[in-house]
Amino acid sequence: MSLRSLVAPHRRSAARRGPAPLGALVATAVLVAGPSAPWSASSSEDGAAGSSRAAGGSTLRLVPGVPSDPATTRSATPRPTPTPTSTPTPTPTQSAPAPATPAPSTDRSAVPPVTGTGAAADRRAPSATGRSVARPGSVRLSRTAPAAASPGPGTSAAAAASTAAPAGPATRPRPVPAQGGQVVGIGTPTLPDPVPVPVTTTNPLAGRRLYADGRDWTQQQALGSLTGAAADTVRALATVPQATWVGPGDRVEWIADYVDRATAAGALPSLVLYAIPGRDCGSYSAGGSTSAASYLAWVAGVRTAIAGRPVLVVVEPDALAQGSCSGTATDTAARLATLASAVDLLTADPGTAVYLDAGHEWWLTPQEAATRLVAAHVGRARGFSLDVSNFYATDGEVAYGRQVAELVRTLDPTADPHLVVDTSRNGAGPAPAGPGDWCNPAGRLLGHAPGAVPGGGVLDGYLWVKHPGESDGSCHPGDPASGVWFPGWADDLVARSVAAGLLAVR
């Protein structure tokens, strides 16, 4: 078993039908500008937020535009919530059955706390229809001739004004037939792009460039077997800063080396701890530490590797929302206590910005999420993360996160939680509800570019926690295991983003 399979991310599926592979795309620039187009991209100033060498000696660079506060495009009114149902935990050879279609409630607070098995229906709750998809911003990866000196990543400030989200659902464009081309840019839908904000704020992302490692295991593995446009897809995605997942199989020395590289580059590294006992409750990313004691010893090792350097840490995707694999209150309390101890270990280092993962808006009610976060010592952390490895629209996640943060402050007046949202693959919102809609669903788009959000209030910023192009699990015959590069799915993701006017090709 590979190292990445031990620590890989997880989730989602649907029958894959889409546009032609990336290598068949029209060889022209397809970025669409102008506020009248539902998926248009705002203009932006050039600047580097990370770079890597592409084929032929050229350079791919991420160019961010201007962000906006999602609160200006969406109210924080509670949304109708489907009543949770229970479905059997899927195995690597069997997708989760379709949950029964529930009648939506008019009040989230009326939904009872989640007590079923975490890997069952909760994270795969059906999405509501008629969801609003906010207007995309612009982010481009531009191909330029290499400079005489090796170009280093840098920050940029954009001057373009942000545009508001349209009222009501956006109409997604159909994929266009194409004939050949090469990826030279990535744009992002959902919301305008984050830029550095003054370092005088307490936001740990403010004024910091997130680290783009370029040495991700799955991406390097893919580059060893791919050529042409498919390889360019990997290279282009690799230039965008993404979190590094670590588990019990990762040595302290390796984690320390990763932090060393980021620190030397003057960038902020981001780690995802994914080693909780009973990880993923036996689903596609099953594994983790053998006991709470061994887990906490491993977390202490991670803290040693960080060694006082500034690091952003997302703690245990899904663990808090799952509660426990048995569904009993006793086991849930034990898991929350383990998470609390992990938070205590990590936050003893003031340079570590800790975000406890809290699932997503259709998993726990705001009250239940807040109660569990307080029990897991979110008051000692920077805050919590939402939508990790999922596809729910950013505006809904932010509105939900604001409710959760307010409830946390009510339960613990000493707490001041902030949030980050995983926007790596949520540009099109969730897939239609159905069997396996959580695992490798077709028709997705790249999400908002990672970085800080100025004036975001409780929203610190956006991250790419899940790596676009990695499989969510072997949920269909032929699908790779969780965390392994999925060339067909990655090409589909990029091709649709091109068709939506979010990528530049030539």
Layout: helices, strands, pairs:
Elements: H1 3-7, E1 51-53, E2 59-64, E3 139-144, H2 217-223, H3 228-238, E4 244-246, H4 252-264, E5 270-273, H5 292-306, E6 311-315, H6 319-322, H7 329-347, E7 352-357, H8 366-375, E8 383-386, H9 394-411, E9 418-422, E10 451-452, E11 459-463, H10 487-499
Parallel strand pairs: 4-5, 5-6, 6-7, 7-8, 8-9, 9-11
Antiparallel strand pairs: 1-2, 2-3, 10-11
Key descriptive features of the protein:
506 residues, alpha/beta, TIM Barrel, 8-stranded mixed beta sheet, 3-stranded antiparallel beta sheet, 10 helices, 10% strand, disordered N terminus
What spatial form do the alpha-carbon principal axes imply? globular
Provide the spatial order of strands within the biggest beta sheet.
4-5-6-7-8-9-11-10
Percent of residues in β-strands: 5-15%
User: Which series of helices and strands comes N to C?
Assistant: HEEEHHEHEHEHHEHEHEEEH
Radius of gyration: 21 Å
End-to-end separation in angstroms reads 39 Å
CATH topology of one domain: the name is TIM Barrel
The CATH architecture of one domain? Alpha-Beta Barrel
What does this molecule look like?
The protein is α/β, with parallel strands linked by helices and 506 residues long. The chain has a domain at 123-139 and 195-495: 1, 4-beta cellobiohydrolase (TIM Barrel, Alpha-Beta Barrel), CATH 3.20.20.40. It has helices at residues 3-7, 217-223, 228-238, 252-264, 292-306, 319-322, 329-347, 366-375, 394-411, 487-499, and strands at 51-53, 59-64, 139-144, 244-246, 270-273, 311-315, 352-357, 383-386, 418-422, 451-452, 459-463. Strands 4-5-6-7-8-9-11-10 form an 8-stranded mixed β-sheet. Helix 4 (252-264) packs parallel to helix 5 and helix 5 (292-306) runs parallel beside helix 7. The protein is globular and about 55 Å long.
